[in-house]
């Protein structure tokens, strides 16, 4: 066993340096030269250069004039981007049924047809940046009313922000909530409520 | 369920197995010490390492020396990683200002990453510094994977050998696999991940002022570099708490495909390499067929389960086509289903959805795949030797039926090898069922449960299955960061790794010493559909049957409760 100690120590230390320090730093260096935007977290900034959020990370929306994301279990108030988490409620947990029933009841008046599943379920990460097309289109009437614009204009904008499946096969169609809301503010500002 | 979903599942699996072939051929060259195109870069590094270690590469080790090296290396890794985590507050690159991890959490986490499990009792964003992620966790993602593949190489040599006393050299295998296989491919995959959107930065956080005027603190890590080896080495430990459901770890369908493929490709490649080293390519193909059949069946079952009406959605009159609780919109049911089959079949343990919120049978299938013994296709390397153990038991059973001494790949399989094989196989039910039975009645353990009723038992069973199988995924509602869970899950991980691997090496030593026989008319063919069927049966009976009573009290009874809830409406 004694003869094993030297190689065990040498290999562990050597590879910790190579694979634990050298490799990640090399990737970081190349990434910052070749793909600086992605490497930094795909941040979106306003005209003053202030960070609004990340294109990949969902954020909370509650105002009627914005497209709303999914319920979130990240952190205490949801959409905590330094505390990602799902609800981890089992399918028969009474707490889950109660939460979904309450949220669904609030959404029924918004549009026709059944409330989409993604509108009343929390995502796995609590930071899902997307909603389903059905969910987004069902919110169009509310958004249009709040902005004083036509429902068709909102529907068209949502449709143009729908991202399809990769190669027509992989993943599901989805709509990025933050990017769509930025586009709404740019293209259909409508009537600005006071104080904004 | 729709045609797109089935196409996605089938294509993902086809790409994985398709890429495993060239990778396996390359890996066989690395195992055999042959020249590769990376020699000009890494040959000098290799020599330097051997000189530093005082290792003579051509000498070779007996099975006992090989096992001792494996253990010594794992102990050294454990000590270094434990210290790194425990004292991360004294180490550089801690922009988060996190304190050191508690002793029980450091113990659990160090064992977890050294055994290629990557069970995580903690929330990384609020616990682990940038330095701990890189030098602590990323490096052991590589090394625990390399150690597993090294053992697979040793087992392959045992079958190829003719009356040999040695199985190769552990230090050489570890070094060559790290340098020639894991590092170059991870580098390429990591850069692809960054291009596709994963962050790679030493910055710890960004403060955002959201569109509605709120504040959002966005945690960042050197993500892509760790994500690459996390999947490629079947590690599965999340850089973020939500693992590959987190948009930074898995931003879109393309990264999702790369991650699914890369978490299984190396395990299949080990089987391909085994076939080439042992000169038994058709037999290796039969092993791959068994693996693919199981993965496909599991993916189909999870896809079916997760598109059943979820009681809570039905009760609220919401659209219940897909159980979206704990799933991401960009992935949906099919991407999640094939991911689940791959991650639980391969002891990866990374997740792109929360298994705890799955329909009862969806979560049950995930648990069952782990309990089958992590060989479908299993962890890198460990999946191959797990499958070889099952193959030996299968030919032994066949031999008993016809009254002949069984052979596998030209080696007589006798009582001694079967005893070692059974010793390894029995450790799973012993640890999983033993620990679960105790935890199910212990108040200090039950405090960690998040869900009541049958689902609570499933959380316990899943935790010990995952730890013993060195998988690392979880029914994550379980609050496992307590001394009881950290300690017992740590021990389960140790048993699953070492109490399995050491008997396997003993078995390999015994096989290597035997003469290599040619096939005769009396040899049971191990490359055809008959053997595939036999092996599937043995895996189901050895792996499945012993867990059935426990599963009946967890996911199966919950399934009937769900049906009852729907029928009552």
SSE layout and pairing:
The complex is a heterodimer of chains A (196) and B (569).
Chain A: H1 2-34, H2 36-39, E1 43-45, E2 51-54, H3 94-107, H4 117-120, E3 130-131, H5 133-138, H6 140-147, H7 151-160, E4 162-163, E5 174-176, H8 177-187
Antiparallel strand pairs in A: 1-2, 3-5, 4-5
Helix pairs in contact in A: 6-7
Chain B: H1 3-31, H2 39-53, H3 63-86, H4 103-114, H5 130-160, H6 170-195, E1 205-209, E2 215-219, H7 223-232, H8 253-277, H9 281-306, H10 311-315, H11 332-345, H12 360-371, H13 382-402, E3 407-408, E4 411-412, H14 415-439, H15 443-446, H16 454-468, H17 483-512, H18 529-544, H19 548-567
Antiparallel strand pairs in B: 1-2, 3-4
Biggest sheet architecture of chain A: 3 strands, antiparallel
Number of helices of chain A: 8
Annotation, overall tally of beta strands of chain A: 5
β-strand amount of chain B:
under 5%
State the largest interface: A-B, 106 and 125 residues
SSE succession of chain A? HHEEHHEHHHEEH
Judging from the principal axes of the Cα atoms, what is the shape of chain A?
extended
Helix content of chain B: 55-70%
Shape of chain B: globular
User: Strand order within the widest sheet of chain A?
Assistant: 3-5-4
Separation of termini of chain B? 23 Å
Q: Any idea what the radius of gyration of chain B is? A: 23 Å
SSE succession of chain B? HHHHHHEEHHHHHHHEEHHHHHH
- Count of individual helical segments of chain B: 19
Largest sheet of chain B: 2 strands, antiparallel
Counting DSSP E segments of at least 2 residues, the number of strands of chain B comes to 4
- Percent helix of chain A, as a range, is 40-55%
| Residue-averaged pLDDT of chain B | 96
| Strand order within the widest beta sheet of chain B | 1-2
């Amino acid at each position: 066993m004694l003869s094993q100690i030297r190689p065990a120590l040498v290999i562990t230390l050597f590879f910790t340096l190579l694979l634990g320090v050298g490799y990640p730093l090399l990737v970081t260096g190349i990434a910052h030269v070749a793909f600086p935007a992605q490497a930094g977290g795909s941040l979106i900034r306003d005209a003053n250069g202030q960070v609004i959020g990340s294109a990949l990370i969902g954020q909370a929306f509650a105002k009627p004039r914005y497209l709303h994301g999914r319920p979130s279990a990240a952190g205490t108030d949801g959409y905590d981007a330094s505390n990602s988490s799902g609800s981890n409620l089992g399918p028969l947990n009474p707490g889950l049924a109660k939460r979904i029933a309450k949220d669904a009841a609030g959404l029924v008046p918004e549009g026709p047809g059944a409330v989409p599943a993604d509108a009343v379920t929390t995502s796995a990460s609590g930071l899902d940046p997307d909603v389903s097309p059905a969910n987004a289109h069902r919110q169009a009437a509310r958004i249009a009313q709040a902005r004083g614009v036509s429902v068709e204009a909102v529907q068209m904008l949502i449709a143009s922000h729908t991202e399809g499946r990769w190669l027509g096969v992989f993943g599901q169609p989805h709509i990025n909530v933050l990017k769509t809301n930025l586009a709404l503010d740019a293209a259909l500002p409508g009537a600005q409520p006071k104080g904004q | 369920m729709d045609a797109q979903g089935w196409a996605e599942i089938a294509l993902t699996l086809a790409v994985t197995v398709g890429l495993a072939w060239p990778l396996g051929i390359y890996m066989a060259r690395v195992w055999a010490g042959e020249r590769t195109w990376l020699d000009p870069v890494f040959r000098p590094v290799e020599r330097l390492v051997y000189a530093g270690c005082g290792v003579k590469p051509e000498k070779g080790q007996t099975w006992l020396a090989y096992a001792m090296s494996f253990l010594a290396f794992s102990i050294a890794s454990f000590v270094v990683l434990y210290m790194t985590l425990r004292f991360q507050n004294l180490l550089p690159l801690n922009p988060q200002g996190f304190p050191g991890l508690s002793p029980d959490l450091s113990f659990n986490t160090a064992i977890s990453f050294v055994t290629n499990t990557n069970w995580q009792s903690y929330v990384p964003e609020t616990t682990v510094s940038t330095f701990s992620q890189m030098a602590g966790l990323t490096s052991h993602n590589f090394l625990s994977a390399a150690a597993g593949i090294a053992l697979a190489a040793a087992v392959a040599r045992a079958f190829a050998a003719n009356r040999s006393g040695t199985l190769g050299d552990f230090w050489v295998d570890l070094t060559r696999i790290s340098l020639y296989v894991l590092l170059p491919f991870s580098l390429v995959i990591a850069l692809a991940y960054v291009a596709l959107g994963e962050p790679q930065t030493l910055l710890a956080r960004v403060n955002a002022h959201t569109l509605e005027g709120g504040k959002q603190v966005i945690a960042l890590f050197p993500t892509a570099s760790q994500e690459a080896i996390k999947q490629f080495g079947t590690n599965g430990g999340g850089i973020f708490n939500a693992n590959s459901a987190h948009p930074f770890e898995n931003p879109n369908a393309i990264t999702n495909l790369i991650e699914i493929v890369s978490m299984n490709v190396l395990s299949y490649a080990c089987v391909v390499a085994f076939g080439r080293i042992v000169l038994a390519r058709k037999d290796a193909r039969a092993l791959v067929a068994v693996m693919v059949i199981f993965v496909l069946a599991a993916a189909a079952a999870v896809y079916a389960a997760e598109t059943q009406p979820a009681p809570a959605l039905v009760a609220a009159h919401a659209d219940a086509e897909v159980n979206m609780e704990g799933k991401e919109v960009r992935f949906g049911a099919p991407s999640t289903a094939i991911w689940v089959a791959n991650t639980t079949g391969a002891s990866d343990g990374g997740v792109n959805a929360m298994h705890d919120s799955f329909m009862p049978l969806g979560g049950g299938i995930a648990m069952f795949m782990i309990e089958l013994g992590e060989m479908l296709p299993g962890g890198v390397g460990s999946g191959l030797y797990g499958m070889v153990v099952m193959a030996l038991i299968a030919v032994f059973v066949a031999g008993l039926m016809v009254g002949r001494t069984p052979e596998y790949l030209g080696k007589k399989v006798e009582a001694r090898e079967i005893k070692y094989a059974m010793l390894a196989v029995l450790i799973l039910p012993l640890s999983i069922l033993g620990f679960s039975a105790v935890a199910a009645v212990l108040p200090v353990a039950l405090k960690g449960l998040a869900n009541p009723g049958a689902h609570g038992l499933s959380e316990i069973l899943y935790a010990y299955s995952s730890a013993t199988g060195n998988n690392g995924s979880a029914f994550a509602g379980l609050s496992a960061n307590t001394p009881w869970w950290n300690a017992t899950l740590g021990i389960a991980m140790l048993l699953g790794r070492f109490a399995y691997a050491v008997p396997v090496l003993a078995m390999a030593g015994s096989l290597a010493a035997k003469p290599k026989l040619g096939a005769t008319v009396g040899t049971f063919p191990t490359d055809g559909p008959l053997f595939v069927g036999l092996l599937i049966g043995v895996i189901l009976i050895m792996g499945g049957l012993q867990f059935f009573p426990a599963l009946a009290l967890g996911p199966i009874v919950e399934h009937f409760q769900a049906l009852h809830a729907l029928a009552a409406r």
